[in-house]
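Sequence in, structure out. Go.
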Amino acid sequence: MTRPWLRWLPAVTVPAVIAAGVLAGSLPASAGDPLPAKSPEQVLALIAQHRETSFSGTLDQTSSLGLPELPQAGPGAANGDTAWLELLTGPHTARIYRDGPDNARIQVLDRLAERDVVRHGAEVWFYNSKDNTAAHAVLPAGLKDRHGSGKDAVPAPDQLAEKLLAKLEKSSDVSVGTDVQVAGRAAYQLMLTPKSSTTLLASVAISVDGQNGMPLGVEVKARGQADPAFRVAFTKLSLETPDAAIFTFSPPPGATVKELPVPDHKSDGAKDRPDDKAKAKEGFKDKVHVSGTGWESVIELPAGALNGTAGKAPEQQGGLGSAASLLAQASVPVPGGRLLSTALVNVLILDDGRVFAGSVPLERLQAAAAGR
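Output:
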């Protein structure tokens, strides 16, 4: 199941380590029980050993990114494509439930509304109570066979943490900080401190359950800020199997329901996809470029990436999409384009439509745009 946490711009992989975790059952450690000392390698091994089962919990997320308030009305304000931007501008609470790889539910709780993502077997639902709209999709039968019973389609936190650490460990000093308590559980703090002095990030702390190795929280600090720029962590956690009824969803009376098309994944071959779509997808991949390494990486997206027209002819690209429009409103003019600046990530949108993003200063993005 696709999770909204995977799209949150700053430290995009980090929140995902938390949002769809899987646990190995154990009893909570009491606040007074000190954890045995472990090296960074041992804490990493603790994360890797942890296995899938069931759990439920409450997550709190806070952001102090320096983003301006985004408009609450107007084109795209409530669009699903822009919901991830709204998630960055203030505190949010979510309830998460999981029972094996094929049953999961995330409820993002707003002050006057609720957004749900529910997966039950092959059925996937998206619901927004604010406007009483729902979207439904049925995953193709070939998806499980192709992805190992859905494990790749619903990545476990040990897989995500492994990918994160594989990309950043070599460019970071990795250490174990002071033990912490998260959701009543004693946890190690795995600290990643960038070796680079160029990146905007100061440190990433991953709270790892001292008994079962589950990542319980992530805290990201930016240079020059005392408080975390981004934090997501469990405040409540239960290792009991959730009630099966939680994963059954029916749209409320009067809801507007949209059926989402899902591509057939019976074969990996391009021959099973329309030639124009396959070529457009491959063409887009070819145009995405990454320069630099580790924390200093800069991602270049082709013109049209923000409005879904990358790879199309200029006459087909049209205007900005809703996400791009909101980005433009939150950005400031700079030579050659506009800059969306946050404590953790800078995004440079050039006048020619190309986009450069990274946890680096504007000058680094401009140098990448100039091919230096």
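Check: The mean pLDDT is 75. The first helix runs from residue 13 to 19.
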